[in-house]
Amino acid sequence: MGVVNVTPDSFSDGGLWFDEEAAIRHGLELVQEGADLVDVGGESTRPGAARVSLEEELARVVPVIRALAAEGVAVSVDTMRAEVARAAVEAGARLVNDVSGGLADPEMPRVVAATGVSYVVMHWRGHSHDMYSRAVYSDVVTEVREELSKRVDLVLAEGVTEKQIVLDPGLGFAKNADHNWALLAGIPDLAEMGFPLLIGASRKRFLGRLLAAPDGTPRPFSRSDAATLAVTALAARAGAWCVRVHEVGPNADAVRVAAAWKRAGT
Question: What is the pTM of this model?
Answer without folding.
Answer: 0.91
